[in-house]
Specification:
By secondary structure, the protein is of the alpha+beta class. About 25% of the residues lie in helices and about 15% in strands. The chain contains 14 helices and ten strands. It has helices at about 55-65, 90-95, 160-170, 180-190, 195-200, 250-260, 260-270, 290-295, 325-330, 350-370, 445-450, 455-470, 475-490, 490-500, and strands at about 80-85, 110-115, 130-140, 145-150, 215, 220-225, 230-240, 280-285, 315-320, 345. Strands 1, 2, 3, 4, 5, 6, 7, 8, 9 and 10 form a ten-stranded antiparallel β-sheet that branches. Strand 6 (about 220-225) and strand 7 form a beta hairpin. Helix 5 (about 195-200) packs parallel to helix 11 and helix 13 (about 475-490) runs antiparallel to helix 14. It is globular. Mean pLDDT is about 90; it is low at about 15-20 and about 525-530. The structure holds protoporphyrin IX containing FE. Protoporphyrin IX containing FE binds near residues 114, 334, 335, 363 and 364.
Length: about 525
């Protein structure tokens, strides 16, 4: 698919393909002045010291020392490419949303996709047991929309303050600088709402065979909005056209040694060979009043809706058809964020989603700079006009001579929005400190998941857990985690208890404590019934 500009440089170009011949270029310094010998250095005589006036050498060394930018604090190792999204069921989508990307059958929107592991550093092995990130940037005619998914319908937490704690325990021990299984399971066993995601992670779903054989879930409940302000809750799901395929633990471990970059290489070569990976995008919809009656709180990120309970409907398909010409420019510098939305798509009150809407642009201002939206891969294809000016690396003309305030002398047009944003939802109540608490319903999905697994997959889940939890030194931690598995399912719990050498003890629920969780969403969300 053609792009109207070069994603690496921002210059207007003809359609490019990665097999294009290299243009003829002459070696120059950073100022474009031709230079004849890249390897030379100025010195006194043939063996004497170097000269400060050798600006070529100094420029060369100075730039080299500044090549690294901060890697993403999570999802640092990744790979990606470009392609397009095509609408297949505008009739369905338009019943619920005015999003431009779903507005007409056959409409194609250019996209950039990035896959990633979560916990490892930028050089870590692709086949690690870890969730996978799955981000899609839609360059719609009405602005950028980022769908920042994982390959799982749920997550380990539902209270956003836990995220840095949780991630720290998945990364390196502050003293040994080693991954630490005791810290890993200490956290998970003390925060039982993570159990369903833990079970998915330790099934073979935790070691997908590359990036193209896995599904993507938006995970959170978002909202779809129509021109008249009516809205519904929505979840999006991307199903791989390549079929789901996972490594066993043994295969994944071997691949980490044999080819740590397996998924990156597999993605690049599939695209290069013309076997463009594709996914079908589905939506699940609940009206606000259906959500009130739903058996799980739809704002709880540790709970899925399930396709049996809420059927999914296809809305489109997307394909990755082009490798980056330059990885750093087009993938490393890509900034995906749940805060990057277009009309018709909105956050729900899920507290983790709300926190993410702050965290990503904040991370990107740090990682890429305040003007990160001017980096070509992040720039919308439609015009941008606002009052954000100046700052480092302001490289797209700084919006020219137009006044940098809301001026009556040279007015900027204000679009007439078809609805008033603030009336979508009305919330009441005082400011409270909120933290969820674990109750019996938190074991519902772990049980559903266990019962959905084949006997072989159940065996693999048990042995994958035993192989990891069994190496934890703390007996207390092992016992606490086994109690959680046993509460979900007695057979599972006993098998793991036997494998890791601890007895099964009964799980105790705290009988009181703060919680924001009811079983369903408070009715104050439904001021506008659909
Ligand atoms: C990356 C924070 C939960 C998916 C990131 C980054 C941050 C972050 C700071 C790095 C962004 C960058 O430097 O560009 C958080 C916080 C969370 C959270 C604070 C919860 C409180 C989630 C969830 C999902 C998710 C629930 C999926 C449903 C991703 C993906 C990336 C990412 C896919 C990589 C984006 C890319 O490819 O560049 N997250 N995250 N995260 N996160 Fe999260």
């Amino acid at each position: 698919e053609a792009f109207s500009f070069d994603l690496a440089t921002g210059f207007q170009t003809q359609e490019q393909t990665s097999s294009k011949p290299a243009p003829e270029v002459v070696f120059t310094n950073e100022g474009g002045t031709p230079y004849s010998q890249p390897y030379d250095a100025q010195r006194i005589g043939s063996d004497g010291p170097l000269l400060l006036q050798d600006v070529h050498l100094i420029e060369h060394l100075a730039h080299f020392a500044r090549e690294r930018i901060p890697e993403r604090v999570v999802h640092a190792k990744g790979a990606g490419g470009h392609g397009y999204f095509e609408v297949t069921n505008a009739e369905f989508a338009k019943k619920y949303t005015m999003m431009d990307v779903f507005s007409e059958n056959g409409l194609k929107t250019p996209i950039t996709v990035r896959f990633s592991t979560v916990g490892g550093e930028s050089g870590s092995a692709d086949s690690a047991r870890d969730p996978r990130g799955f981000s899609v940037k839609f360059r719609s005619r009405k602005g950028i929309w980022d769908l920042v998914m994982n390959n799982t319908p749920v997550f380990f937490i539902r209270d956003p303050s836990k995220f840095p704690h949780f991630i720290h325990t998945q990364k390196r021990n502050p003293q040994t600088h080693l991954k630490d299984k005791d810290l890993f399971w200490d956290y998970l066993s003390s925060n039982p709402e993570s159990l369903y995601q833990v079970m998915r992670l330790f099934s073979d779903l935790g070691t997908p065979c590359g990036f193209t054989h896995m599904n993507g879930w938006g995970s959170h409940t978002y909202r779809w909005i129509k021109e008249d302000g009516k809205w519904v809750y929505v979840k999006l799901f991307a199903e791989t056209m390549q079929g789901v395929r996972n490594f066993t633990n043994a295969e994944a471990v071997a691949m980490q040694g044999n080819n740590p970059d397996f998924a990156t290489e597999d993605l690049f070569s599939s695209i290069e060979n013309g076997s463009y990976p594709g996914w079908t995008l589905y939506a699940q919809v609940l009206t606000p009043s259906q959500a009130e009656r739903f058996k799980y709180n739809v704002l709880d990120l540790t709970k899925d809706w399930g396709f049996d309970d809420v059927p999914k409907t296809e809305i489109g398909k997307f394909y990755i058809t082009k490798n980056p010409d330059n990885y750093f420019a087009e993938i490393e510098q890509a900034a995906f964020s749940p805060a990057r939305m277009i009309d018709g798509w909105a956050l729900s009150a899920d507290p983790v989603l709300q926190a993410r809407s702050f965290s990503y642009p904040d991370a990107q201002r740090y990682r890429l700079g305040a003007n990160y939206m001017q980096i070509p891969v992040n720039t919308p294809t439609c015009p941008v006009a606002n009052f954000e000016r100046d700052g480092q690396m302001n490289v797209q003309g700084n919006q020219g001579s137009r006044p940098n305030y809301l001026s009556t002398l040279s007015p900027i047009q204000l679009p007439k929005l078809p609805y008033v944003e603030d009336t979508h939802q009305q919330w009441t109540g005082g400011a409270v400190r909120s933290l969820s608490r674990v109750t019996e319903i938190d074991f519902d999905w772990p049980r559903r998941f266990w019962n959905s697994l084949s006997e072989q997959d159940q065996q693999n889940l048990i042995s994958n857990i035993v192989g990891h939890l069994g190496l934890v030194k703390s007996v207390e931690v092992r016992k606490r985690q086994v109690a959680l598995f046993a509460h979900a399912n007695a057979t599972l719990g006993q098998a793991i208890a036997d494998g890791v050498g601890v007895p099964v003890v009964a799980l105790e629920f705290p009988d009181s404590g703060p919680t924001w969780l009811n079983t369903t969403v408070p009715s104050s969300t439904s001021t506008l019934n659909y």
